[in-house]
Automatic annotation (TrEMBL):
GO biological process, one term: microtubule anchoring
Entry GO terms, CC: centrosome
Lineage top rank: taxon: Eukaryota
Gene Ontology MF term list: microtubule binding
Protein's name according to its UniProt entry: Centrosome-associated protein 350
């Protein structure tokens, strides 16, 4: 009976270690996606500023066709930004759901191990009483 109790303690410690590791990975993933989002916004902002500058220069030169092309490029950059942001949001949702699912599974495993431990203790008490 003592071996079973030791195994339960070991399994419980392993489940808790897995849960801590999972929480750390989730925090890292969230931080990476946040950085990706920030870099994407900064890139789009810089590209839009450059195109706006070019458009102003073309407007000053009274090149309406060139200015229109710049406006089209700006619109394209904004659409790509929205698409990338939607993709990042989708990834965040997927990672969040997967993390919650793994967390729930580990919690259930921990509860099972606790029940096994309690059962082993009760069996040991019963064995001692009948022995």
């Amino acid at each position: 009976y003592g071996g079973s109790s030791t195994f339960c303690h070991f399994s419980l410690a392993m489940a808790e270690q897995c849960l801590r590791g999972e929480e750390l990975r989730a925090r890292h993933q969230a931080a990476l996606l946040k950085l990706r989002k920030k870099a994407l916004r900064e890139k789009a902002r810089a590209e839009l500023a450059w195109l706006d500058h070019q458009k102003c220069c073309l407007e000053n030169l009274q090149d309406s066709k060139g200015a229109s092309v710049m406006a089209t490029k700006q619109h394209k950059i904004l659409m790509e930004l929205k698409q990338e942001q939607a993709e990042i949001q989708h990834l965040q949702n997927i990672y969040r759901a997967a993390h919650q699912e793994r967390k729930l599974l580990l919690k259930q495993q921990r509860e099972i191990l606790m029940m096994r431990h309690s059962t082993a203790q009760l069996q040991e008490k019963l064995h001692n009483l009948t022995g």
